Write a sequence for this structure.
């Protein structure tokens, strides 16, 4: 009841709740337009999927190229060793 009596008597708020609430509302109104919407997140997800797929394809080609290079290299080393080594 003491709280209701204080408001009824229009005593100043010792905790400055009105000022704090105004500050929080201002911060909320400032931050809200910058938050991502579901559409923004869906667009970002689609972009990331496309980029990820592109990177996977590039890495797959790189791995295949390295594998072929290593096979050819080892085949060359084995051929050279067979020519040099007397059996």
């Amino acid at each position: 009841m003491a709280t209701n009596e204080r408001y009824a008597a229009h005593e100043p708020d010792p905790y400055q709740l009105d000022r704090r609430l105004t500050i929080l509302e201002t911060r909320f109104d400032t931050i809200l337009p910058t938050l991502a919407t579901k559409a923004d997140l869906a667009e970002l997800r689609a972009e990331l999927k496309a980029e990820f797929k592109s990177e996977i394809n590039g890495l797959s080609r790189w791995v295949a190229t390295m594998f072929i290079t290593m096979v050819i290299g080892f085949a060359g080393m084995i051929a050279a060793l067979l020519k040099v080594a007397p059996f």
The chain has three helices and no strands. Helices lie at 2-8, 17-31, 38-84.
